[in-house]
Please model this.
Amino acid sequence: MNRLPEWLRKKTPKHFFQKEIRALINDHEVHSVCEEARCPNRGECFQNRTMAFMILGNNCTRHCKFCGITKADPQGLVSNESQKIVEAAKKLKIQHVVITSVTRDDIEDGGAKQFLEVTELIKRDIPQATIEILTPDLKGKEQSWKVLLKAPVNVFNHNLETVPRLYNLLRPEAEYLRSLKMLEYFKKNSIFKIKSGLILGLGEEKEEVFRVLHDLKNIGCDLVTLGQYLRPSLKQVAVEKYLNPQEFKEYIKYGEGLDLKIFAGPWVRSSYQAQEVLSRIEV
Model:
C-alpha cells in the first residue's frame, strides 16, 4: 500500500524549529527517537520544542520488522550521556521529559541503571519537570525491573506494539506475555502511571486488538495509545491497512466500555503529546 489516504497527508509546519533542534542534538551529542525512528510527527513536535530523548546509543540489538531504528552492533556507553540530556532539556525548557532507549540485550541489566541515572539527574536539575520513561523489556529480568522502581518518574511506558499472533513475524526476539508481565509488575509495585501502546495496520484483526485491550485493562494499565503504522523506509514491512479516523474512534469507544483510557488516531505515537496525555491520566 503506497498511496497515503487523504487523512494521512499531513502538512509540515512552515516555521518549525527542526534545524534548531537538530543543531541542539548535534551540539549536545544526544540522540532523539524522533529523528532515529523517522517519526512523522517530528516537525510538529519540534515546532512545540518537545522531543523524546534516546539513551544507550542509537544501535538496537533486536530486529523488529516495523522499526526504523538502526540494527547494528551495539556501541559503548557514553559516560556523560545523562548530563548532556539534562543540558539539552534545560535549553529547550521542556516541562515533560520523555526518555526512551534502543534495546540493549548485550548489557546485563538491559540499561536499567542508565534509566535510573538520567531520571535522577533530571529530577535534581529540573525539579519542576515531570518525567516519562519508555523502556524495552530488559530481557524480562525482575532484578533489572527493580532498579527502575527507584526512578523518580511519573509515567512508566512499555509498548506491546502489536497483537500476540504477529510477534513471531514482527518482533521475533520479544514475547507478548513477558511484556504484559512487565507492565503488571510496575502497576503492582510502583505509584507510576502505566502506559502502553500499539501500532495498527500491520495485519492485525479488530477482535485481536480488543483482546489486547482487555489484557491491558486486566493488569491495570492507565492509558493505551493506538496509532497508524507508517513504513519508515523500504527496509521495513509494508503497511497492510490504513485505518480511517472512524476506526480509531471505535477503539476509543470500546475502551470507554472497559473503563480504559485510550488516546488514538492516525498520527498518535507512544510519546506524541505526552504531557497532554499525562494530564488525561491524572484526571
Remarks:
- The mean pLDDT is 87.
- The radius of gyration is 18 Å.
